[in-house]
Amino acid sequence: MSSGNRSEAVDVQKSYEVRTYGCQMNVHDSERLSGLLEGAGYVRAPEGSDGDADVVVFNTCAVRENADNKLYGNLGRLAPMKTKRPGMQIAVGGCLAQKDRDTIVKRAPWVDVVFGTHNIGKLPVLLERARIQEEAQIEIAESLEAFPSTLPTRRESAYAAWVSISVGCNNTCTFCIVPALRGKEKDRRTGDILAEIEALVAEGVSEITLLGQNVNAYGSDIGDREAFSKLLRACGKIEGLERVRFTSPHPRDFTDDVIAAMAETPNVMPQLHMPMQSGSDTILKAMRRSYRQERFLGIIEKVRAAMPDAAISTDIIVGFPGETEEDFEQTMHAVREARFANAFTFQYSKRPGTPAADMDGQIPKEVVQERYMRLSALQEQISWDENKKQVGRTLDVMVAEGEGRKDGATQRLSGRAPDNRLVHFTQPEQPVRPGDVVTVEITYAAPHHLLAEGTPLAVRSTRAGDAWEKRTTEAAAKPAGVMLGLPGIGAPDPLPAATAPACGIG
Fold first, then answer.
1. DSSP states of 177-195 as a string?
2. Edge-to-edge, what's the strand order for the sheet holding 15-20?
3. Which of 81, 27, 2, 42 is CA-nearest to residue 487?
4. Which residues contact 381 (CB under 8 A, 6 or more apart)?
5. Annotated binding-site residue numbers for [4Fe-4S] cluster
6. Are the CB atoms for 248 and 505 separated by under 8 Å?
7. Fewer CB within 10 A of the terminal residue: the chain, N end or C end?
8. At a CB cut-off of 8 Å and minimum separation 6, what does 429 contact?
9. 3-state per-residue secondary structure call for 57-121
10. Which residues make beta-bridge pairs with 441?
11. How far is the C-alpha of 348 from the C-alpha of 329, rounded, in Å?
12. Principal localization (predicted)?
C-alpha cells in the first residue's frame, strides 16, 4: 500500500472488525490480522458494533460439521449492510477459506477478499487491490510465506500473551483436517521464540502460553527430540516471566524430559492439557492416534508423581465411527483413572474432508447423545471432587479481565491459580489491576470454579498490572470509536467447550 493510501486511511479513520472462529491458533492469527490492519491505518471498531465497520474480517474454522453454514449465514446478514455502505469491505480467511477457495465468492459474491492460512500477511494489500480493481481478490498460498510471529500484532491482553513456536502438524488423525489446511509442521527458531518472549516481558507481559498444533513435537525439523524441554528450561531463565503454559501436546511426543523440565522449572505452571480423544485402544487405532490407554494413563501417573498438584485437562470425542458400548466403557474407565480437572467432551460429527467422515459404523445421534450425557455427568462429578481438594489451600491468583461474569454484582474479582483453575475472590481494600497477584485462601469449590470468600491475605502489584493500567489509560485517551488495549480473553487458557479442539490441536 502506498504512503498516500496509508495517510488517507488514517485521516478517514476507517474501522475494522475481526470475527474469530475455532481454536487458539485462530485466536492468535486474529491478533496478527488486527496488528496488520492497524499498521495499515485502520482502527478497531467499538465492541458490539456487529458488522458496523468499514472492514469486517472472518477468520474461519473448517473442521466443524456446520462451519460453512455458520459462515454463509453471517455473510448473508452483512450483505444488506454492505449495500447501504459504499466502500465497506468483507474478507474471509482461515481454514475454511483455505479449503473452499473459489466457492466462497460464488456463494457470497459480495465478499471482497479471500485469503488462506499461509498468507495472512497479505490482507491489507489484498483489501487495497480489491478497492482499486473493484473486484474480489482470491489468494491462497499453498505453503507458509512468513511465520505468523514475524507479523505485527494487536494483542488482546497487556499481561498475558500467546507465543507461537510451530505451525502445521505431521500427524494423520482420521477426524482432523488441520494438516491438509495448515500444512506439515514447521518449527520456529528457538532464538526467535526467546527473543519474542523477552520483548513481551519488557513490555510488561508476565504470562506466556507456548502455542503449537502439536507443541511438544517442537524440534522435529532439526531432529532434536529434547528441543521442547530445552525451550521450557530456557523460559525459566527469563527474568520477569512469572508463568509459562503450553498447548496442546500430543501423548506420542510427551517424553520424560518434558515432565522433568515442567517439574524443575519454577515458572512453568503445574497445568497440562493433553487430548486423550478416546480410552478405547480399538478406537484410538481407528483414529490413528499413536498411543493406547495404558501409555496415556502412564503419562498421567508420571506427571502426578513429579507434580502432585498438577491440574490435568483433556479432550474426548464420543461416538466416533465404530465405537461400541464396550469401547465407550473403556473411555469411562480411563476418565475415572485419570481424574481430569476438566474435560472438553464432544459428540462426534463428520468433518468434511476427513477419512473418518467416510468410515463405516457411523453411530446414531441418539446413541451418541446418551453416551455424551453419561460421560459429562461422570466428569462433572470428578471435576467437583478434585476442586473440593483445593478448599483450605492458599493460592496466588493472577487477576484477570472479564473472567467472572457476576463479579460486578458480587463485588468480587476473578483470576487464575497457577494450575489455571478459575478463582473468584473478595475484592481487597486496596486497588488491584489485571496482571496483579492476590494471595487468597480457598473456602468453597464448585465443579468449574473456586471461591475465596475471606479477605485476601496479600496483594502484589506487578509490572504486568502497570502495563494493563498504561494501556487502558492510553485507550481511554483515544478518540471515540477506537478500542485499543482492553484485554478480552485474560490469561490464555483452554477455550470454552464449544471451540476447544475445533482446530484439531492435539
1. -HHHHH-S-EEPPHHHHHH
2. 43-44, 15-20, 55-60, 89-94, 113-115, 137-139
3. 27
4. 447
5. 23, 61, 95, 169, 173, 176
6. yes
7. N
8. none
9. EEEECCCCCCHHHHHHHHHHHHHHHHHHCCCCEEEEEEHHHHHHCHHHHHHCCCCCEEECCCCHH
10. 394
11. 16
12. cytoplasm
CA–CA distance, 407 with 300 (Å, rounded to integer): 34
Sheet holding 342-347, edge to edge: 271-273, 311-318, 342-347
Q: Are strands 444-445 and 450-452 parallel, antiparallel or unpaired?
A: antiparallel
User: Residue 268 — φ and ψ, nearest 5°?
Assistant: -85, 120
Q: How many CB atoms lie within 10 A of CB 203?
A: 16
Q: How far apart are CA 506 and CA 291, in angstroms?
A: 12
The whole-angstrom separation of Cα 433 and Cα 308 is 30
From 356, 420, 425, select the one nearest 173 (Cα to Cα).
Answer: 356
C-alpha to C-alpha distance for 395 and 418, rounded to whole angstroms: 8
Q: Residue 452's beta-bridge partner residues?
A: 425
Greatest alpha-carbon span in the chain: 67
Q: What cell does 324 get?
A: 461400541
Is-above-0.85 flag for pTM? no
Q: Residues forming the annotated binding site?
A: 23, 61, 95, 169, 173, 176
Count of residues in the chain: 506
Q: What is the CA radius of gyration of the chain?
A: 23
User: In 3-state terms, the chain is what percent helix, strand and coil (to 5)?
Assistant: 40, 20, 45
